[in-house]
Amino acid sequence: MNHAPHWTADPIDLLRVGDGFRLADVDPDGRPGFDGGKAEGEQALADGVARLADLQEQLFACSRLGDERRILLVLQAMDTAGKGGIVKHVMGSVDPQGVQLASFKKPTEEELAHDFLWRIHKEAPKPGMIGVFDRSHYEDVLIGRVRELAPPAEIERRYGAINDFERELAATGTTIIKVMLHVSADEQRERLQERLDRPDKHWKFNPGDIDERLLAPKYQEAYQVVFERTATTDAPWYVIPANRKWYARLAVQHLLTDALERMRLDWPKADFDVEEQKARLAAS
Q1: Is the separation of the CB atoms in 100 and 123 below 8 Å?
Q2: Average per-residue pLDDT in the chain?
Q3: Beta carbons of 32 and 191 less than 8 angstroms apart
Q4: How far is Cα 83 from Cα 178, in angstroms, rounded to an integer?
Q5: Burial (Cβ within 10 Å: 0-12, 13-18, ≥19) of residue 171
Q6: What is the pLDDT of residues 270-279, one digit of tens each?
Q7: Which residue, among 23, 100, 88, 81, has the nearest Cα to 248 in the 3D structure?
Q8: Average pLDDT, integer, range 56-72
Q9: What number of other Cβ atoms are within 10 A of residue 154's Cβ?
Q10: Which is it for strands 237-241 and 99-103: parallel, antiparallel or unpaired?
Q11: Positive or negative: CA dihedral 206, 207, 212, 216
Q12: Which helix (H) or strand (E) holds 13?
């Protein structure tokens, strides 16, 4: 695809988790492949809106005539890293009828009575949709591991179950994009402090966020295992530095646009005689 100004390299190659990847080596303040600042980044994001929206509409339109393809964007991160901003500023720029958003919180009693993927299967995106998981099935091997909510053997089983699930999605037309937004401890502290300082942000704050923050080293270890066990060709992971919100949003927009462009979409051909219908309309 054509890169926006200030992209010096394709961020897809720079952000994708590969062999030998170490989360500890990622600079949360970085902006891989982009040599502009905040103003240039926000302008690039704005410039990319129309292209992403057009491609998303084409995907949705093609599904009306039987095209089975769809996208699943998985968003994972520690608190305050910017998942909501991705949903608002990136996905908010496309037609909402083509977006399928699911947010996975603490499992209900009914959900706990089933396998951990039971509730996930029900939210998998339909043809023509861009599905967004704001947190996902990965909570069951992240929180589950850190908080010891399941035995080690069960956590190990889940990695394989996740790979099987994602392989099945890919085989039935789903392009999977898994994103981990990587924020530093200092930046997270500032963002939590802002939520406490501003009355209009109090609703975003949960005292449990601090409890989770104290477990950050264990979460980093858990994420490292997740990348090693579940970064596959069909379902790659991308780790995006998230201290700069504008960069994280721009990078996700780029990932989505690239995935849609690789589909080589076109507007579906009419299954009726256009000229005949024009004549009928004129005479009506």
Answers
A1: yes
A2: 95
A3: no
A4: 12
A5: exposed
A6: 889 999 999 9
A7: 81
A8: 96
A9: 14
A10: unpaired
A11: positive
A12: helix 11-15
